[in-house]
Structures are given as C-alpha cells and as structure tokens.
Design brief:
This protein has 136 residues and is mostly helical. It has 5 helices and no strands. It is 91% helix and 0% strand. The protein is elongated.
Length: 136
C-alpha cells in the first residue's frame, strides 16, 4: 500500500501545466495569433458566402441560357407542341367523361347549378316587382 501512495505523489508532483511555466510574452503571442486566426476565419466565412452566392447566380444564368437554347431546337419545339396537344386531349377527355358520368347519374354540374340559381334569383326579383305593381 505504501508503494501506491508514493507513486501517486510522484505523479501529482510531475503533473504540471505549460501555462504555469510559460512566460508572459509567449502568452501574449499566442493570444495575438488566436485573434489573427479568428479574423482570418471571419474573412474566410465572408468570402465563402460571397463565392457561393456568385456561383449560384452564374449557375442559374447558365441553366437559363441552356434552356433558352434548347427551346430553339426543332425537336424540342415539336416535343413541347406534342405535350400541349396531349394535355389538351386529356383535359377534353376528362371533361367528356365527367359529363357522361353526370348525365348517367342525372346530376347537374356545378356551373349549371349556379346558372340555374342566377335565373331563379332573377325570376324572383321579377315576381316581386309584379306583385308590387298589382298591389298598387
């Protein structure tokens, strides 16, 4: 047991920190270096952000130019026309199918119901005006 305590004592007496023995001028130099490193880091962050935004703008501009050039290619133009034609056909087919479903179920579409509501409101106004004329 005595040997364990002596080894602990020798370890604790040999454990020392560089800060305890470092001269003041060295501490000041290290602090100065740390401040400079922080300044450089801040400057690098600013430059990095600026570079990212500029790069993003250049990339977006390049993509737009490529898209514009592709739109001029005859095959791309034709593909766009076909896409539009197909879209129109699909829309017409869907509308026709919906009309057939409403007709088959004997239901009115929303636009027809609104049109009929407007006509009923118009007829109600005319009826009220006629009733007032007869009362007078």
């Amino acid at each position: 047991m005595a040997s364990k305590t002596t080894s602990r004592k020798t370890r604790s007496t040999t454990d020392f920190s560089w800060e305890d023995f470092r001269p003041e001028w060295a501490s000041e130099g290290i602090e100065k270096i740390a401040r400079e490193l922080e300044k450089w880091n801040d400057e690098l962050q600013v430059r990095s952000k600026k570079f990212r935004t500029q790069s993003q703008k250049r990339i977006e501009k390049g993509v737009k130019q490529v898209q514009d050039e592709l739109r001029k290619v005859p095959a791309i133009k034709r593909a766009e026309e076909l896409r539009q034609e197909l879209s129109d056909r699909v829309e017409k087919n869907i509308e026709g199918g919906v009309d057939r479903v409403y007709t088959g179920l004997k239901l009115a579409r929303l636009d027809e119901v609104k049109r009929l509501e407007r006509k009923v409101a118009q007829l109600n106004r005319k009826l009220r005006s006629l009733e007032k004329q007869q009362a007078a």
